[in-house]
Amino acid sequence: MEVIRMNNLSYRYPTTEEYCLKNVSFSIQEGELCAIAGSNGCGKTTIGNIIRGLIPSFHGGEIEGTLEIFGKSSKEISADEKAKRIGFVFQNPFTQNSGIKETVFEEIAFGLENIGVGREEIITRVMDIIEMLKIESFMYKHPLELSGGYRQRVALASIIVQNPEIMVIDEPTSQLDPKGTEEVFEIIKLLNRQKKTIVLVEHKMELVAEYADHIIYLNEGTVLLDGTAEDVLANEILYKKNLEMPQVARLGFQAREKGLMIEKVPITMDGAVKIFAKYGKCVKDGGGSHGES
Ligand SMILES: Nc1ncnc2c1ncn2[C@@H]1O[C@H](COP(=O)(O)OP(=O)(O)OP(=O)(O)O)[C@@H](O)[C@H]1O
Ligand SMILES: [Mg+2]
After folding, report:
1. Which of 15, 24, 42 for a ligand 1 pocket mutation test, highest count of atoms within 8 Å of Cβ?
2. CA of 250 to the centre of ligand 1 (A)
3. Alpha carbon 132 to chain centroid distance?
4. What is the residue with the minimal CA distance to atom 30 of ligand 1?
5. Where are the alpha helices (DSSP H) in the chain?
6. Residue 28, exposed/middle/buried by CB under 10 A (0-12, 13-18, 19+)?
7. What domains are defined for the chain?
8. Spatial separation of the C-alpha atoms in residues 224 and 23, rounded to whole Å
9. Percentage of the chain with pLDDT > 70?
10. pLDDT single digits (tens) 61-80
11. CA angle 220, 224, 226 (to 5 degrees)
12. How many helices (H) and strands (E) are present in the chain, helices listed first?
């Protein structure tokens, strides 16, 4: 089932002449882990803000085209229904904190209190999420004392705990080191296995290649590519236009240019090892380099 559909959407902010989204169309199916990818400034966060309804109501500007969520025009979905069914994790974790709660535990519980969940259930649900995100050691700390990386986890926790059907997560690891990044992505994968639809806004291509089922690749406000991770990230157009792509995919195209006719361009490290291992073996056994006589 289709859960989000954007049709020919164009948008410009009130302060700019130029449209930052131009004729954007895509659809996202229930249960997908869909990445909105593309380099800085291509319009990813703006798409997130349109889905949330902050554009145009809060930001203003000019908008054309349509957006459907859960099969209905987004205009017909009340703010209340949206808040229950769609969770948003902002790009900047410093803006997500409520600012009124004194501990991480209370901060995570805040959204549940708001919708009138009972005390016992709040405690169970919050503790489950705290364990899942491995933040037990600072659950009694003040949210504003945390570093960016931990705030990012708390922001994610406070959305997961509300159990929304769709989660829109904007660059969840911008403040995290590689280990923290992997941990957060494992959690996102777990949520996705629990049938949540995840819209992941992300420009780190290695992560997108590893985790996304579906990628909508934006370039300068238009959809350049839309398809499976392999279709999109191993597409020659990214290489030719020198756009962001996984390092191993770039290496694959460079190898082809040098005459190494690999059958497939890899998008992940594991994929690259499999593809290139064949040639390594050939050099070791035969003693000569492949592709040249
Ligand atoms: N409030 C605003 N007013 C005017 N222009 C804006 C505003 N917010 C974003 N823009 C511009 O709109 C374009 C798209 O911005 P957006 O934040 O959606 O990109 P992004 O893909 O999320 O980038 P990043 O990877 O840096 O987060 C950029 O050119 C940006 O400068
Ligand atoms: Mg952004």
Report:
1. 42
2. 27
3. 19
4. 41
5. 44-52, 54-57, 79-85, 104-114, 119-132, 148-160, 178-193, 205-211, 229-233, 236-240, 247-257, 269-286
6. buried
7. 2-245 (3.40.50.300), 246-286 (no CATH)
8. 11
9. 94
10. 999 999 999 999 999 999 88
11. 135
12. 12, 10
Pocket-testing residue among 40, 46, 54, 174, ligand 1, by greatest number of atoms within 8 A of Cβ: 46
CA distances to 24, 41, 79, 263 from 46, in Å: 12, 9, 18, 38
Give the nearest ligand 1 atom to 39 CA.
Answer: 25
Minimum-distance ligand 1 atom for the alpha carbon of 218 = 21
Between residues 213 and 96, which one has the greater pLDDT? 213
Ligand nearest to the CA of 41: 1
DSSP sequence for 133-163: TT-GGGTTS-GGGS-HHHHHHHHHHHHHTT-
Cα 121 to the center of its chain, rounded Å: 29
Torsion 247-249-250-254 (CA) sign: positive
